[in-house]
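Pasting two entries for a bug report.
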Amino acid sequence: MRISRSTAGTAFVSGALILTLTALAYPSMLGVENAASGQDRIIANTQWGPLTEADRDFVVRVRAAGLWEYPLGQMIMERSSSKEMREVAEHLLVGHGRLDAGCRKVSTDLGITLPNEPSPQQQQFVATAEGSTGREFESTAVTIMRVAHGGIFPTIAKIRATTRNSLVRELADTTNDTVLDHITVLEKTGLINQEQVSFQITAPPKLPQEQTTPPPPQQGAPVRVLPIPEDLKDLQTVAPNPSYGQPQPSPPAG
């Protein structure tokens, strides 16, 4: 049976969106109790500049986004044959592979604990898409991700404007480019109902903290890696190749 865009969209709103598609809205302190002083509190002074709770929150958010969107990209690659959907999958795998490498490097330099699993809410996003088939699967997956990507833009802008840590600033730049790239390829599928997306971004319901917080990694567990597939390493996207840890040119003398 052919599922129209409007029918698939309506079914999605009445079901999956009850879960709240604010994919990146969870507390900053993974494994650390929240402090009453707020997110502008400096938690460490580093050679790259002061690190605030908001900075740490941002790194964790970017990492957690990849932990559910990367598997969804793999699922799309396996299930979809259309050119537009395969482009979405490729850009998800490459974009989040690059961002993940940046998060892991930044977390090592700044002493930030990263999750190895997405939050229960984010796991449900993947399960919701996985439970559908055909055109409904594609519409559901695309809509979930479009809402998530649209919702993170204000966070990226605020961090980019306020952080005094150069590593976090560079990650914000790369994240902004990657999110814009992903939104572009998602919209090219023609499966997005912009009114529904706008509503979910601007009026998301609230969920308990335990649903929106990624679990801390098990003690001693290796950091999970999201690799870029070998055949996609040369894929050109809006997102630039990160330069974390690479030597920077010296300023001119005098």
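Entry 2 (this is the one that rendered wrong in the viewer):
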Amino acid sequence: MTKKITIAIDGFSSTGKSTIAKQLAKELTYIYVDTGAMYRAVTLYAMQQNYISESHFNSEDLIADLPNISLSFAFNGELGFAEMFLNGTNVEKEIRTIEVSKLVSKVAEISEVRKKLVREQQEMGKNKGIVMDGRDIGTVVFPNAELKLFMTASADKRATRRYKELIDRGDKVNYEEILQNVQERDRIDSTREDSPLVMADDAIEFDNSDMGLKEQFERIMSLVNARVQ
């Protein structure tokens, strides 16, 4: 492979975007960026500062405080992927809770938050050789990406995957709560005014409701190989 490209992976929550993105980055020795982790970290910060809860959201105070939010990734060799750091503190576990999941779409609606993170994401990918997943990577962050994928699956399948992931981690959750969260995030992500979740015209749709990881990876790698030769 002589040519480095940008791979943009968008799609609904819990469609396995991060899993496939990590696999691709490892295979290609590319940089992997989980943009969802960045929005989750800002959400965690807002929760810590009491700017947001299930009953209130003081978006103006969060916007004013954005210059004080520093986000970075640090590669963990034992885990095999980069972990999210918020103002120098590893928050990888904290940002994956259902409490953060319930609020992240509201934070991601804020234009000032999106502008800050998009700038950082574009800087990370300026030299290509990157796999980035999120909601607006192929439409806003890297509209000229050589390969754009849009991941989707039924809400039931996605909720089941998310439920198993949290249970395996030791969290106490119930399936109906997870399903409701998945459906609500879909609604907010798809209807927000700033950079709504839509499939780019030149993206390839992957419905992985009944597709295993091995099949997904092999199909996507064939697409990558066609673009880097």
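Dev reply: Rendering is fixed now. As a check, the viewer should reflect this: The chain has a mean pLDDT of 93.
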